[in-house]
Amino acid sequence: MATAKQQNTLDKVGGATRQIPRHVAVVMDGNGRWAKARFMPRLFGHKRGVEAARKVIRACSDAGVECLTLFAFSSENWKRPQEEVNGLMALFMSVLERETPSMLRHQIRLRFIGERSGFPEQLQAKIYQVEQETCHCTGLTLLIAANYGGRWDIMQAVRRLLEQTQTEGLDIADLSEAHLTQALSTAGLPEPDLFIRTGGEQRISNFLLWQLAYAELYFTDKLWPEFDEEGLQQAFAAYASRERRFGMTGEQVKTTGRSC
Q: How does pLDDT run across 216-255, given as a tens digit for each residue?
């Protein structure tokens, strides 16, 4: 049953009473192309992308989404021009410093997932500081995937489980999908219900490979700086129109009532 806040959101898209996604995962693609089309440097596009992220975070929080994961910097992005990479590191720092008070006011809990040891020490310290300052917040959980890759996530989970077999006596024969899920960087959080990718590309790009197994995929041609509350509502409407069967037949879903 939708909460009052969720129902208000669904009314805006003209839908019947539907459950909105608990966890939304987003690949924020198109910042560079948006800037290039305006004869501006790529970093200008990333800065405008921060504004789009702010709108989507607020809209998800208001809608009652429990968890929002934003793919901010992949492990492959280090291959980009050094000037752009340096600019992104500086942008991460400034955003964390500027947005922390707002996150606290709106009860948003921030978590970073990814290999943070690859970042400058000052940025690592800032990430840890903001995570600690917001850890008590009870509203939206905001995950920033930075220096993250889905294959890296699975590999670090496997290594962790192998360590447990040696230090805790965990029998390899007893390992299950549940064990691996709890060893991933998203442990303790619901798996994504809705995956959104902006920018027109239709691929996952090494993002949350294990976690997206049953997510509904939504692709839009809008570049990320153009994506806003209206675009998010359209994604929610598309999600609400789908029948989620999780391997069952449509008839079974109707019988059990499990469709979301």
A: 999 999 999 999 999 999 999 999 999 876 666 666 556 6
The catalytic residue positions are 29, 77
Q: Are 216 and 195 in contact (CB under 8 A)?
A: yes
Alpha carbons 245 and 77: distance in angstroms, whole number: 35
Give the pairing of strands 23-27 and 194-197: parallel
Q: Where do the structural domains in the chain lie, given as residue ranges?
A: 20-240
Q: What angle do CA 111, 137, 96 make, to 5 degrees?
A: 45
CB 238 within 8 A of CB 13: no
CATH superfamily of 20-240: Decaprenyl diphosphate synthase-like (3.40.1180.10)
pTM over 0.85: yes
Report the alpha-carbon distance of residue 236 to residue 24 in Å, rounded: 10
β partners of residue 69: 25, 143
DSSP 29-60: --HHHHHHTTT--HHHHHHHHHHHHHHHHHHH
Q: Tell me the C-alpha distance between 19 and 7, whole Å.
A: 9
